[in-house]
Amino acid sequence: MKIFNKFTLFISIILISTVVSSPVDNQITYYGCPDDCTSQDEPACDIKIDTEYFAALANKYPKVKSHCGQYVVVMPTNGSKKIVKAKVVDTCEDCDPYHVDLSTYAFGAIVNLDDGIAEVIWALYSSNGQKVDGPHCNDFDSAAKKVGMTRSAYIASFEVSAENLVKSKNDVGVLSSSGKENIPEKNFNSPNQTESSTNKETKTTHKSSSTLVNKPTTTDTQSIKSISEIENKDNDNDVGTKIGIITAVGGTCLGAAGVGLLLIKKKNPNKYENLKQKFPDTFNQVKRSISRGTTALKRKVTKREPNPNVIYA
Q1: Which of 10, 23, 126, 151 has a Cα-to-Cα distance from 312 of 20 to 30 A?
Q2: What pLDDT was estimated at residue 193?
Q3: For position 141, which CATH number holds?
Q4: pTM for this entry
Q5: What pLDDT, on a 0 to 100 scale, did the predictor assign at position 278?
Q6: What is 20-88 written as a DSSP string?
Q7: Does 44 share its domain with 91?
């Protein structure tokens, strides 16, 4: 019984530390059919979704409505050379400015659906293949090293492959290191092949808004943003809010122990940090899972609003 209680307390600490985090810039998640079709209804761009490969950009992305109908081209930075293009049809209310929410099919074409979230390099292109913005990536050097390229060669290869893919009739392809047209590949990971009950928490919904931010310099500089720091607020209402969210995410795993640990973390952060340093691997594993669940919770409560006139690409 004592061992079980200690385990519950430890997991509770990890859940508390990660529940306020969310996918950040230059990461991808997914939403929409086949399991959450209502989330793709009434897209903010007010255009018909005529493809299974579509995407939502953050409301905070610069001049987001002007990019409706354009294409994001995305590739994981884990050493994979799979690349996908997705038509911009929607916006995401709570996403970080450079976070991309792909359709289930677009995400599954380059990343296993069970992962739920992934680091990527991505760029925005017009329908005729002209680069509009990007590429964006949290660590160009690391991503390039994983595919055996220099930073400059990696960026150049991605741009050539992205342009060729947008100009083609294909939705999926592979990174070209020769500058030639990339060879398309179909159905890397279809939703029916890879999706399990555990990843249903990753589905998300959107709410349109007109919020805009200034565009940062990218392409030749790294668009790096660290994962959100844990907030240590003294406001009792904030504690109550976090407890409610944690209960929703953690379910029966937390209970009274989780609530007590939240208060301990608030009053004794040093003790919490000591535990975090002793079990770094476990923290990271649980963080990945909770980040996906937290994003779904944040965005499922949003409500779509009537959309103003949009400018199409």
Answers
A1: 23
A2: 44
A3: 2.40.40.10
A4: 0.57
A5: 66
A6: T----TTEEEEE-TTT-GGGGSS-TT-----SS-EEEEETTSTTGGGGBT-EEEEEESSS--EEEEEEE
A7: yes
